[in-house]
Amino acid sequence: xxxxxxxxxxxxxxxxxxxxxxxxxxxxxxxxxxxxxxxxxxxxxxxxxxxxxxxxxxxxxxxxxxxxxxxxxxxxxxxxxxxxxxxxxxxxxxxxxxxxxxxxxxxxxxxxxxxxxxxxxxxxxxxxxxxxxxxxxxxxxxxxxxxxxxxxxxxxxxx
Length: 159
Hints:
With 159 residues, the chain is mainly alpha-helical.
């Protein structure tokens, strides 16, 4: 097993590398769409969501904060891509739906994303299987670190 500083540096380098590469890819896919990657993600979630998708659902599925999700959804509403309405069952709940303009934008973005992801067919199945196992291992390690870190606990208490 590598020593702690080497292991720490390796984990941090991998996290930063994945973050940078993911950002580069999502920025490229959304380039020219007029949306940020998070706005495009929200459009797709609303497009593919259950009959009633809420801002809370967006928070859970993206991992962004409630305030950030609300701001992004408000911007999408202001720009005419989504509607936000209060649930009749619970007035605290905000329901999201795509407008016609939002449906068209989501379809264009989905097409661009599908075109990009179609290149996965060029990658050998064994490589994809290794990738999936690696991602699952990374999720396990990161979740473990998140659950065990006293620093995370302190920040959760402050929130």
